[in-house]
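Practice problem 4.
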């Protein structure tokens, strides 16, 4: 064998080993813990009679041949493998067994998605899943959905709330706000803010309020003025922080706020 061929073989071996190790490490980093309702597949090399499909009970136990009930709640599949190996050895059932535990389904690791997404429901989180991953799994935000998402998380006896501006996060490329979700998190997508327009416009009604939308832009969304409409004396009905209704005179360049009601008067001439 010449030196060039030998070097190529060594290089291929090293690259293959690096890929194998990298995949193994990545797999370990993405492991989720086992919980009630999860289904596990367990194999023992050289002992097909011990192959088991088992479901984790509400108390975190599984039933395994020759061992009976084994508590695996809160363990990763790798930790469960080590525990079963230790039990088989300590009870003199097998010597140096090779055990593999695979999570067929992780029903205990679920996150709820509600509100204005295409598919509301509960979704599994195997490994690390970000907020945008879960939104994608739910089919994305609906056209009527808002750009601000609320994540509610239970930490023991108290709950915390995170409000994430998804659009701003994407525009600024600030993915530090793309939080890693946890089991039992609740993600809620509210309806997008709206404004209302009536009077002498082509299409009176309720419309989605875009960011930094001006009164002029709002008028264009409503199809513009009718032949009898006028921009003079534009009025907006708006509630203040205390909920009191105010009637404001505005210019076409002023910004529209959520739930504003824009009234277009009829021209007198």
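Answer key:
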């Amino acid at each position: 064998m010449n030196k060039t061929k030998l070097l190529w073989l060594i290089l291929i071996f090293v690259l293959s080993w690096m890929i194998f190790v990298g995949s193994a490490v990545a797999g370990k980093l993405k492991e989720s813990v086992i919980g009630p309702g999860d289904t596990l597949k367990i194999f023992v090399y050289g002992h097909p009679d011990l192959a088991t499909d088992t479901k984790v009970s509400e108390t975190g136990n599984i039933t395994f041949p020759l061992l009976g009930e084994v508590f695996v709640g809160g363990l990763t599949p790798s930790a469960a493998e080590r525990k079963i190996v230790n039990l088989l050895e300590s009870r003199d059932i097998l010597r140096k067994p090779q055990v593999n535990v695979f999570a067929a389904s992780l029903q205990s690791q679920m996150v709820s998605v509600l509100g204005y997404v295409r598919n509301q429901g509960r979704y599994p989180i195997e490994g690390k899943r970000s907020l945008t991953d879960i939104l994608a799994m739910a089919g994305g935000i609906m056209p009527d959905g808002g750009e601000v998402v609320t994540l509610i998380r239970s930490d023991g006896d108290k709950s915390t709330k995170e409000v994430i501006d998804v659009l701003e996060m994407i525009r600024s490329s600030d993915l530090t706000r793309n939080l890693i979700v946890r089991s039992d998190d609740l993600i809620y997508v509210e309806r997008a803010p709206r404004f209302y327009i009536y009077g002498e416009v082509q299409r009176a009604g309720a419309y989605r309020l875009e960011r930094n939308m001006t009164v002029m832009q709002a008028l264009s969304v409503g199809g513009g003025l009718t032949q009898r409409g006028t921009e003079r004396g534009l009025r907006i009905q708006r509630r203040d922080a205390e909920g009191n209704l105010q009637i404001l005179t505005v210019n076409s360049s002023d910004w529209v706020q959520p739930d504003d009601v824009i009234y277009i008067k009829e021209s007198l001439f």
